[in-house]
Design brief:
The structure is a homotetramer. By secondary structure, chain A is mostly helical. Chain A is built from ten helices and no strands. In chain A, helix 1 crosses helix 7. Chains A and B meet through helix 7, helix 9 and helix 10 of A and helix 7, helix 9 and helix 10 of B. The structure holds a DNA duplex.
DNA sequence: TATGAATGAGTGTTCATTCAT
DNA sequence: GATGAATGAACACTCATTCAT
């Protein structure tokens, strides 16, 4: 079994190597300024091999956006299931998890920003991301509403609160240098939470 | 004077036309995907003329970042002078003004994002923007501190609060579609203010 | 016999399938614009299998020219044996047969034209075809001469008459669209015959 | 005047040089097997300059077909005007002129054959050539009919006679090696004339 | 023998920059 | 100063051939 599987495994591994190299280089240099040859080199495969796995450079870019998006979706879609407790606790848990996520996946966030910055250039990808945002907002809204009813969250459109939260996360990765400490990220989580409701500097105790 | 000046004026006007065209196209299509020929066409000048005013494409890009930055600096540097009243009122005034500013200059914000996204590609420009941020934080900090002493702002590092505010502004232009209404921007201002201190939904009354 | 032969048969059949696919695609798209992968697909075999039967693409092209040529040779070489009667009747029979042949094998004629159009590119193949033409002329010449002596053919170099006849056949497949009717081909046969001698519009009665 | 004109003249000359180089190389090596770099070299210009004058390789190919076609049209369209005398004399004059033409422009005929051999690949060009043929046939038909009435031409569809004539011309350049003598071409003219009507070996005397 | 992934040379096209007019 | 033709480096993509399985 291991021998027979290894053929298929090797292929998968090569594809993954290319994809990871692409994520790295596209995020560092942008789509237009990343030659396919550089990706091949980074991935340790020959130039032509890239096109064995991805029809065009554009298709490869799509894959670098969409495949990680699937991994990330659960953290944004399954809010009720993943995060427990009161609305406040749920949102706290969510922010904890998501900021953590993006503090680690800076590369991926840079990729997303390239798409968000040019909707007309990447209409399909933009739509995917837009849909993602809208589903997230729909899922988060009931929790915000419950929190508003409990008086722990600000009044106002839940969609707006959710969007400002996403903006903050997106902007964070743009504005901040990589080497920020855990302490810094903790503080940013507090700031994120403050978009939902007041105070919350008691987080440290949690 | 009018005759001799008009020659100089004409030159200036041509340079300005090129610069504005560059801002528009660089922000829409990115630096790498904007041919100089397209800028010339958009500006209504001949291809070669672009190089009369800007030595290289790179120099032109620098100008599109740095020249508007100078226009914008007063709104971020002269906080004490421009915005009056209590610390809360000052920050309110500042947010009002700055969100207004960027809601209109989406193009310029997109340019900035290109630089922020690739510090290694544009080290000089990045340094300029980083300096800009740091000066802004230094100027804003005393006001935040005073507000904290008055109990209207959250406790915590003023730098952090300032940075989260900039992140939100930056992220807004990434996440939001252009057609948002004034109402939307008003709401975002409230959210921005909530990064400084609680509540503040009394803004509508101001 | 059936079992052991069937292995050999299968091989043969695969080789034939590849060859036919190659004739079709080379004639439609030209040698340079026909990828080996397309031939494999058309033939219903895997990509690598093509190279099992034909060392290189060039070798395959040679086979598509030379193997059908062998089939065709009898119709051009064995004039005395195949076509009977007076010189005029022999030539009539020959034209009937050959025009028929090429009206059906347009694909093959297109292949030949590719070689004829580029003697330097395909020197070996060109030589084969040139030899073919020369043998045909040598075989046809005595019949033309006899016809000239009988006064039914034009005077003049038999080689020239033969060559003009081949030119007409070749040109026909270039100039004419595929869907021509039988009536059309009949008329072309008359025109071909007129290169040999006058009148002959009595063909319809034969 | 010469100085100011020379700018425009130089451009024209460069364009012509590229076009002629393209005619030469496309006809020798075929469209697909002629790199643009080779054309540039042959024309004595740099690689990029080719694209200054012709947007794409395909456009250049179109020009190599269509521009000489315009030069050739008069010889095929203005039959009544160019060739005088009886129908027989007109056709004789026409053949003389046209065979002469193509005996010299073998390169161009090879280009045309590439288009005729692949109607689906070059639909626009094919249509142009098809239109050309049809106009020629329409113009020639009345003369053939008059000749038929005079009893010097064969009876039968004028279109068919015209087409067989074009086929012969086209096939000639395919089948014949370049070095043929004037004598040879003279003989071919006689053969061409025999597609119209009988005998005519009195041509030598004309 | 059959397969199809791996390779890298080859090519059309773009475009920043130069420079003669 | 203004123009736009000339240049050639850079790059995406194709595809014949090889070869491990």
């Amino acid at each position: 079994m291991p021998a027979s599987l290894s053929v298929h495994e090797k292929k998968k591994r090569k594809r993954t190597a290319i994809l990871q190299a692409a994520v790295k280089l596209f995020s560092e240099n942008g789509f237009a300024e990343t030659p396919v040859a550089a990706i091949a080199k980074e991935a340790g495969v020959s130039f032509g091999t890239v096109f064995t796995y991805f029809e065009t450079k554009e298709v490869l870019f799509h894959a670098t956006i969409l495949e990680p998006l699937e991994e990330i979706k659960p953290y944004f879609y399954d809010i009720e299931e993943r995060y427990s407790g009161s609305p406040l606790e749920k949102v706290k848990g969510m922010i904890l998890c998501q900021v953590e996520l993006f503090s680690k996946r800076k590369e991926y966030l840079r990729l997303i920003q390239q798409v968000l910055a040019r909707p007309d250039r990447y209409p399909d990808l933009f739509k995917e991301l837009d849909d993602f945002v809208n589903v997230f907002i729909d899922r988060l809204a009931p929790i915000i509403i419950k929190g508003q009813e409990e008086g722990v969250f600000y009044k106002g459109s839940p969609a707006l609160i959710a969007q400002s939260y996403l903006s903050l996360i997106n902007g964070m990765r743009l504005t901040f240098i990589d080497e920020y400490t855990n302490l810094f990220w903790m503080d940013m989580k507090i700031q994120a939470l403050r978009l939902f409701g007041p105070a919350h500097n008691e987080w440290e105790e949690s």
